[in-house]
Structure formats: C-alpha cells, structure tokens
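ligand=FE2/S2 (inorganic) cluster
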Amino acid sequence: MDITLKVNGRPEQFSAQPNELLVERLRDGLGLTGTKVGCDTGQCGTCVVRLDGRSVKSCLVLTASAAGGEVATIEGETTRGGELSGLQEALRQEHGTQCGFCTPGMVMALGELVDATAGGEAPTEPEIREWLTGNLCRCTGYHSVVRGVQRACAAARAQAPAAEPAAASAAAGQEV
Ligand code: FES
Ligand code: FES
C-alpha cells in the first residue's frame, strides 16, 4: 500500500506491507537508526517516537496506521548545527545517560511531558517517575534522569510566555 508520512518535518512517500511496523520503516526504510529496538514487544521504550505529538512505542504501531501523520524521531531533536534540545542538554548536565541505549526513547517520551507542562505547573517527582514507567534503563537508576527532567522543565517554564490552564493536566499520562 502507498503511504505518505511526514518525518521530522520532511514528507516521505513509499510503499509498505500492511504488517510493517513503524520502527521497521524508520530504521530500515528511512535509515533513522537513532530509534532503537530493545524488546520488540512494547515493554522497554527504546523505540519511542512521537506521532502527531504524542509519544508512542513504534514497535507497536503499524506503519499503515500512522499514514498521513507526523512522526518525530530523535534525529529531529538536535539541530543541524549539532545543538542539543533543552531536554538533551539537561540530561547531559545531570548525567542522565550512560550507555545511551535507552536515551533516544527517553528523550522522545519525556520531551512530551516537558512540552506539555511548560506553560503550567511543573510535574512532581512522582509524576515524572510515573511517566518514566514505559522506559527501562539498566544504567542510571533513574535518579539522574528525573533530575534532568526537572532541570528541563524549569528551563522550559522560564521561557514559556504565559501559563496555560490545560497544560498541567496533560501530565496525567502518556499514550504508549
Ligand atoms: S522495542 Fe521495546 S518497547 Fe519497542
Ligand atoms: S543509559 Fe544505559 S540503558 Fe539507560
């Protein structure tokens, strides 16, 4: 079947089998290997990307079901000049990454939380940890990741123009 997708702002058009997974299209079809495959069964979160703004586990999404949508991967987070996103920089400063295998999925999942709360209340530590339950990390013990998210949220709120009442409620859960 013929499918169109926008990936990191760039239009893509291709033919795909009905059972093709989005992670296969990204990695094997488009060469975006920053998205990792850890478990292939929806448990580890290394494959998280954003589809139409929401974080999803791309090993659980059929490419066909994403047709017409907008996909953001870790490759789109860093600028062409190599500048890190706010969350990436905060994780770097708090040592929130070690081997780095989980980091692309973490950044894509947690970035949704940072963005959603930028104009309102900062997420509490329990809320951050709940958000993190879909992303496994064998190295960091999560403490430094939580600190990185807190740092990123503080920076994002400092830059946000005004509070938006609906923003804080978005911290209720991620769609993964
Ligand atoms: S590869 Fe583990 S959740 Fe997708
Ligand atoms: S930094 Fe190694 S798995 Fe998370």
